[in-house]
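Tokens in:
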């Protein structure tokens, strides 16, 4: 049964759609970079291709299984950022990542090994720019070769007691700077620090020769894999030594501004001399407490109290229990979050963290950096470490000629559809054209905003999804108009046929769109690459189809049914249907008289 006139509010529906459209374009022009253009995919605008070369500690070629696993993890990271249109392929022993645009930073981030360990801070941080003479002056020694400053501790001092108030770091400065770099056995963090005399009695042999031996120079006779293996072995020998003297020399020789050959290849069971991510500080770290593989979830957000972005980690049961026990036993001590052999954050433990609670990584993060780090940690570390060996700009795979031809073909198709609607439905075709234009405006604004906020890129497959979705919108109009014709054939006027036809057509429209949306959702879940972009845009336009039909098309047709001008059969294109209805009425009247 058709709804009563009192329950129909076409003006309100049109006003609501106007508000939605105005809000979308307000976000487009007054937020973000304010650019009213969507992000285009590789096939439409080109992009940046980064070749990642795998490095193994022994110099051997990576196994096909490890490369496929790395490819899957990187693809999962891509999906975690949204439908970005990136491509990840295996090329021999390399992974080739192609991302839209000219900035290769995103591709390099996707290829990050992301091996996270939580290590106790044994010594540091010290200023990475200090020389041996500076460190000797800080320690009170008279010669540059006196070694890094040490921190004597009386034998009777209990390590579990918190530091005195004058030496304890304040609560609002979780990463104290300039703390002495102790020459102690890093395998026993928290034990008593050896006296200076014991440190200075270290044998002269490792102090003058082994620690200061330079890293092996590049040998032209070695393959790149063999050279990488030699660099990793040399870095481990110095920066992961258990000899305090070797550790001190490694810290003096460490250049935080240079590429780290140990990135992602450090041994978690050994101590580590590591730089901070900004390259300003050097730490001495103990063996790992928690492995990043124990991360269950990672999210990013803004800490209102500290006014900074941070990454929140949730560990699995084993990792959560380990972290709870460690924090309870080491209040006042520093714990470093080490990502790919660099210290991201080294906060002071202010209190015990209950098992099951989240912990945070803090640092000088921007919103984008925090989100990328959380996404990287959430989906696990790569089984291999990679180095970006090549980065290049690639042109659009379709070319401008193909893109222009596609746009022209789409415009011609849309014009033909509108002409058909005008010929077949007369003035009702104008309402169809207006609805399609408003639908296109809404779709365009949503494309721009998705590209701005979730990194969505529009490629050719996505354009195909949009065209099919808009075609389904036209199908909804046809269903509605044909239901109106059926009502008129039964003898009703245009005025009364519109609400009755809508009451029946809307169920068909909702059913058809529901089936299309389910198909798009299933395709999005099961597919990869550009097919996911097609499914995404198809599902999006299906939703917008329902919005346009309910908030635009139906109210416009209802208002037209109340107009005397639009109710004329010669105007609304229903003259032939009205003639059929008149013939039926005449036949029915004749049959009644004969009876």
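Residues out:
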């Amino acid at each position: 049964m058709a709804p009563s006139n009192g329950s129909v509010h076409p003006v309100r529906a049109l006003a609501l759609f106007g508000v939605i459209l105005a809000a979308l374009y307000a976000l487009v022009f007054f937020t973000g970079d304010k650019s009213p253009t969507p992000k285009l995919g590789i096939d439409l605008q080109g992009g940046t291709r980064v070749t990642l070369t795998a490095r193994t500690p022994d110099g051997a070629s990576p196994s096909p299984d490890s490369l496929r696993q790395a490819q899957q993890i990187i693809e999962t990271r891509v999906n975690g950022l949204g439908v970005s249109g990136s491509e990840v392929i295996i090329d021999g022993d390399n992974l080739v990542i192609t991302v839209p645009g000219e900035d290769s930073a995103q591709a390099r981030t996707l290829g990050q090994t992301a091996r996270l360990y939580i290590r106790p801070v044994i010594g540091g941080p010290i200023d990475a720019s200090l020389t041996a003479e500076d460190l000797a002056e800080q320690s009170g020694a008279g010669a540059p070769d006196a070694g890094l400053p040490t921190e004597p501790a009386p034998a009777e001092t209990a390590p579990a007691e918190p530091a005195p108030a004058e030496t304890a770091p304040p609560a609002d400065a979780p990463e104290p700077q300039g703390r002495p770099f102790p020459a102690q056995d890093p395998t026993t963090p928290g034990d008593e620090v050896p006296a200076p005399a014991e440190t200075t009695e270290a044998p002269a042999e490792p102090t003058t020769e082994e620690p200061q031996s330079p890293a092996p120079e590049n040998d032209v006779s070695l393959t790149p894999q063999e050279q990488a293996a030699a660099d990793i072995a040399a870095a481990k020998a110095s920066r992961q030594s258990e000899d305090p003297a070797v550790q001190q020399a490694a810290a003096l020789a460490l250049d935080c501004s240079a590429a780290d050959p140990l990135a992602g290849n450090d041994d978690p069971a050994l101590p580590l001399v590591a730089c901070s991510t900004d390259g300003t500080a050097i730490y001495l770290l103990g063996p790992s407490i928690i492995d990043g593989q124990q991360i269950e979830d990672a999210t990013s957000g803004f800490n209102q109290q500290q006014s900074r972005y941070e990454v929140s980690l949730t560990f699995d049961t084993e990792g959560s229990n380990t972290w709870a026990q460690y924090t309870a036993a080491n209040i006042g001590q520093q714990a470093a979050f080490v990502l790919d052999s660099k210290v991201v954050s080294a906060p002071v433990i202010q209190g015990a963290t209950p098992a099951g609670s989240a912990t945070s990584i803090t640092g000088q993060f921007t919103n984008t950096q925090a989100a990328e780090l959380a996404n990287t940690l959430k989906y696990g570390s790569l089984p291999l470490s990679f180095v970006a060996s090549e980065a290049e700009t690639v042109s659009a795979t379709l070319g401008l000629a193909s893109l222009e031809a596609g746009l022209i073909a789409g415009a011609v198709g849309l014009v033909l559809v509108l002409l058909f609607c005008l010929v077949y439905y007369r003035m009702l075709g104008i309402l169809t054209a207006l609805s399609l234009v408003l639908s296109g405006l809404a779709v365009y604004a949503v494309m721009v905003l998705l590209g701005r906020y979730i990194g969505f890129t529009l490629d050719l497959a996505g354009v195909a999804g949009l065209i099919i979705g808009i075609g389904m919108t036209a199908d909804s109009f046809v269903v509605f108009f044909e239901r109106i014709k059926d009502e008129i054939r039964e003898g009703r006027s245009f005025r009364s046929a519109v609400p009755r036809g809508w009451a029946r057509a809307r169920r068909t429209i909702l059913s058809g769109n529901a089936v299309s949306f389910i198909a798009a959702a299933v395709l999005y879940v099961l597919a990869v690459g550009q097919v996911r972009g097609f499914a995404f845009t198809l599902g999006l336009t299906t939703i917008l189809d329902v919005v346009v039909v309910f908030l635009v098309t139906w109210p416009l047709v209802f208002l037209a049914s109340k107009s005397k001008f639009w109710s004329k059969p010669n105007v609304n294109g229903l003259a032939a249907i009205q003639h059929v209805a008149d013939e039926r009425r005449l036949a029915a009247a004749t049959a009644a008289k004969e009876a």
